[in-house]
Fold each of these.
Amino acid sequence: MYMAKPVIVVHGGAWGIPDEQVDENIKGVEKAVREGWKILKTGGSALDAVVAAVNSMEDNPIFDAGIGSVLTTDGTVEMDALIMDGNTLNAGAVAGLRDVRYPIKLARHVMEDTPHVLMIGDGANRLADEFKVERITQDELVTEDARKGLKEWLKDQKFGETFGHETVGAVALDADGNIATATSTGGVTGKRVGRVGDVPIIGSGGYADNRVGAVSTTGHGESILKVNLSKLVLNYMETGMSVQIATEKALGYMAVRVNGNGGLIAIDKDGNIGHGFTTKRMVWASIKDDDLESGINA
Ligand code: ASP
């Protein structure tokens, strides 16, 4: 039987990440990558590993996912998430969630327990009831920092400014050679109510295919959507480019073609790692052969 060497990479988002939050961001991704690694190391699946890593960051208020999510112009939280199984190409996604503690868990229920791929609004809520997914109130989701972020944003209403809280994601390869991706976000500060970004859209916020690799993205959602950033990376890899070159080329294409900034993590089917960003910073961490690496600056 083919046994692969497990690998996991996580990100805690792109944009500026203020200096005073650098340490906490790095600590957060290192904790998350260890959660995922525990599962891979003991023979667990790539899907379980990416969910564990993302859950850890959904719970951490330093990131823009779950608790700590950034706010709409109404001051509310609306969260999106996507999970994809590279073995079957099954995928599950949710958009506009307001009271689900771990959006990535609900996305997994969409993938595994319904015939659908993307669920929103009422239907997503009913699914959360059906599968007894843990709920959370808006009061518990909204942090003081998120409120401050919205206040700052309202001054000049420029998207792409950082308020220190960023989207999260993970990609992993397990010992059976299966690959998975997961991405979870509160979106961007100052988004309109009902705005959906790249994250829950397959090929944009993430993609996984055992035959090629997996990607999870972060950054300006509207730009990522226009170039299908995740799928673009895999398309480049299919032409024979290494995962790192494909990462850089796809981000370069997004910058030139739609003037968009972002970042991404990627792995190929052999477990080689790529990461890159065109924003000021992107926090990431990886574990391969029991070696943990992490970074935040270019
Ligand atoms: N891509 C996310 C969105 O636009 C935000 C981010 O990654 O910071 O919803």
Amino acid sequence: MRRILIINTGGTFSSVKSEGGLTPGLGEHDILAELKTVAKDCELKYEDFCSLDSANILPEHWAGLAKRIEAASREYSGIVVIHGTDTMAYTASMLSFMLWGVPVPVVITGSQLSISHPVADAMENCRAAIHMANSRCPGVFVAFNRKIMLGVRASKVRTMSFDAFDSINYPPVAEINAFGMRIQKELIPRRAAVRFQADTSYSDKVMVVKPVPGTPPEIFDVLADLGCRGIVVEAFGLGGLPFGENDLCEAVHRTVKRGVAVAIGSQCRYDGSSLEVYETGKRALEAGAMEMYDMTTEAAVTKLMWLLGKDLTMEELREKFRENLVNEVSSRDFAE
Ligand code: ASP
């Protein structure tokens, strides 16, 4: 019988009420017996990695998880990671990079209600996650509300609905309906033919800037002064930044000259950026910014963190950021 490892990191899935508010608290005893009822054709093993509200997850947890998954991928046919929904997309994106070429399915899931709640979505999400983990389709995925998404494309878009995640600018790789779970294998990145090894180096010196009309350009200088090595900018519309008063294009220019990698995408969640269309975007490009195209913010942040952990020159980093590594980016130029 195929063996699936369940790794619990916390989140609402395993939460209990406490005086301070909902907090992760359930463990193997409470969770495993429930999960066994939805995993009829595989053997489940369970382990706790941490027990955190996902707001408390740090980049060092990503590296630790990736190492654990690397080791487990030699023993198990698939791995399910239970995770809080709030930062799940960051973890899923970073694991997609760190575990590039992983030989088994790694499926991240969680829920909007604790597994102890009588009408929770926890079991349904886990059922999908376990089924995907048992599918022999390698890669990093998010399972939520009967959808299987590439980890690097998932984003939390709703705070209360059970349909909390969307696959951004990319179709879900599977949906569960009256036909069961049909996996569209052509949507899953091909596994490299090299021997798999997790690549867990990263830099945590990456921040996001979301300008509003009137944002002072000095925000970029402050971030560079604080030691930021990468800045992801959620710019306006197709990716425009002001160049008149409050000249953010010039701010990008001097920040890039200081050796900081600046990536520009859109404040709009869907469709992606196209910096070549407006002067506000072209000037940002001329200032030395890299373009995010249809990457999610979570993917851009973690891709930048991951690339900054390598010993790359700025030119090499720019080249790698442009490259599609794990199907995190598909559009090159919307203006064509
Ligand atoms: N605050 C929780 C967490 O992200 C929310 C959830 O799991 O749904 O850990």
